[in-house]
Amino acid sequence: MTNRQPADRRHDHAPSYYAASANRSLEFAPLQGEQQADVCVVGGGFSGLNTAIELAERGFSVVLLEAHRIAWGASGRNGGQLIRGVGHDVEQFQPVLGSEGVDALKRMGFEAVDIVRQRIERYAIDCDLTWGYCDLATKPRHLDGFDADLADLTRLGYPHPLRRLAQNEMGEVIGSDRYLGGLIDMGSGHLHPLNLALGEAAAAQSLGVRLFEQSAVERIEYGSKVRVHTAQGSVLADQLVLACNAYLQGLNPELSGKVLPAGSYVIATEPLPATLAKELLPQNMAVCDQRVALDYFRLSADGRLLFGGACHYSGRDPKDIAAYMQPKMLKVFPQLQGTRIDFQWGGMIGIGANRLPQVGCLPDQPNVYFAQAYAGHGLNATHLAGRLLAEAISGQAQGRFDLFAAVPHPTFPGGQRLRSPLLALGMLWYRLKDLF
After folding, report:
1. Other CB atoms closer than 10 Å to residue 414's CB: what's the count?
2. What are the beta bridge partners of residue 297?
3. 245, 374 in Cβ contact below 8 A?
4. Which residues pair with 346 in a beta bridge?
5. Which long-range contacts (CB under 8 A, 24 or more apart) does 111-114 make?
6. Distance between CA atoms of residues 184 and 144, nearest Å
7. I need a labelling partner for 169 at 20 to 30 A (CA). Which of 25, 182, 242, 377 fits?
8. In Å, what is the CA distance from 365 to each residue of 216, 306, 368, 410?
9. C-alpha span between 39 and 163 (Å, rounded)
10. Pairing of strands 365-372, 233-242
11. Per-residue model confidence as pLDDT tens digits over 411-429
């Protein structure tokens, strides 16, 4: 097994297939001295990059600070699945938002994917974008959920082809007898997330955004103007956007208490023979099952199986990611027995208690905005969050931002030491329910 990266790249991205197959190399200097801007964005993942792009397209001057490298976190190492929707079970917010508000959230979940599509087209970003996705059922109740989803999407006017699959039709999309049925969505798909993020960083730079890497924020002075301090410099700005997600940590304790870092992991096989790759996923769709400890997988552009899942709430990573993940892959595809694993990687994603992205501004600091806690829908929801933040900061379409901001987000109990163990116990209950 190998974890290869080109020699001319720094090794601070996860040792992933994505880092090894990145199609461009970008490097930005650390912040030194003082900068001034209309908006300072903290975080160089999808949230920060797309907020910066949306603001720059509206004429704002923007400085973006990243503690490591652009897309160092989940944005550069996720499963690459571009799936409609912005949260889990958004019906739960009907008491707060009403039925019209819930429907608006669902439609923004369609828009989120369209933003990614439009950004790729506008800036000619080469990131292996491929359309086609299928939800997979392992329990009869999942099939009932698919039927309800299909009816709801039809009611809302979802503009892309959908198709419900019976068990005897599953061979059309997956070479496994593990699944009872599926729901195809041709408006969702998959891509190379690191190449997308690097392309968006280049787009932001072309729009005049000043990007700085290796520039961890150490301190923030709040007020009518915000001063953001790093080890070697500072940024004075009218507005601040915190887009750190699972890596906010102590920078703002109020926000960090509402997002839990959880581990997520991916393995990548060696390139498969074309006949075997077509046997596994005949239509080259991204797929995902419906369990709490879900599996998600797809083919890469060069014919590898990328297999992910195993969300860990314990705060501890597996000692050997491949040894942990490979048996899960073989349960789905026993025909991959003996196939070499070329890459294994993982890291933190951000999850909130109610599993809806948290987009808003600090109650006592109206010029400080935030976006975090995407709970596995980050690839598209981050792009929507960037648009909503830019709309709010520029005074456009404030109601869309207010819809997200109106949802209360509980703080996880237990403080930093007990928060993860307590949630791990809670998630164990849901995993036990998956057995029935």
Report:
1. 13
2. 287, 307
3. yes
4. 265
5. 111/384, 112/84, 112/85, 112/86, 112/380, 112/381, 112/383, 112/384, 113/82, 113/83, 113/84, 113/187, 113/188, 113/380
6. 15
7. 377
8. 21, 42, 6, 19
9. 44
10. parallel
11. 887 665 555 555 555 555 4
What CA–CA distance (Å, rounded) separates 156 from 109?
A: 11
Mapping DSSP to helix (H, G, I), strand (E, B) and coil, where does residue 308 land? Answer: strand
pLDDT, tens only, 402-411: 999 999 999 8
Sign of the C-alpha dihedral computed for residues 366, 367, 368 and 374 taken in this order:
positive
Q: In 3-state terms, what secondary structure has residue 212? A: strand
Nearest-angstrom CA–CA distance, 253 and 326: 37
In degrees and rounded to multiples of 5, residue 305 shows phi and psi of -90, 125
Q: How far is CA 287 from CA 18, 273, 275, 307, in A?
A: 19, 20, 19, 10
d(CA 312, CA 98): 33
Tell how strand 305-312 and strand 210-212 pair up: unpaired
CA 258 to chain centre: 17
Q: What is the dihedral of CA 349, 355, 361, 363, to 10 degrees?
A: -120
Cα distance between residue 350 and residue 263, in whole Å: 9
Q: How confident is the model at residue 343 (pLDDT cuts 50, 70, 90)?
A: very high
Q: Taking a C-beta distance cutoff of 8 angstroms, is the pair 374, 222 a contact?
A: no
Residue 7 pLDDT level (bands cut at 50, 70, 90)? very low
Q: Which amino acid is at 398?
A: Q
Amino acid occupying residue 285? M
CA angle 76, 357, 427 (to 5 degrees): 90
Residue 294: name the closest of 312, 309, 306, 314 by CA. Answer: 309
